[in-house]
Amino acid sequence: MNEILEEAGIKLLTGEADKLMMRVLCDLTPAGCAVVNKFLGGNVTFTSESNWNSGAVASVLLPYSCLSDLETFIKFMKTGHCDRNVHQMSGRTY
Questions:
Q1: Residue 1's pLDDT band (boundaries 50, 70, 90)?
Q2: Which residues contact 92 (CB under 8 A, 6 or more apart)?
Q3: CB 15 within 8 A of CB 81
């Protein structure tokens, strides 16, 4: 899983940053910001803060439970299946 996420600009760092250990701290490159933004619905704003790792422009805490969905989303993006929004029940494109 890490390879696919890292190729997309999402680097998993540690779960120790979350008090409840339910989320993992991730550094994002500009490409990673775009992927996470699209995965979360396209209305996410990342603030510019300094971080420890080179190449990263933002950091985010992502729930462990969404990582496999994020990986699947990235695979769909690579095949072009995320270029448009299609309502699953009606098949309408918007």
A1: low
A2: 86
A3: no
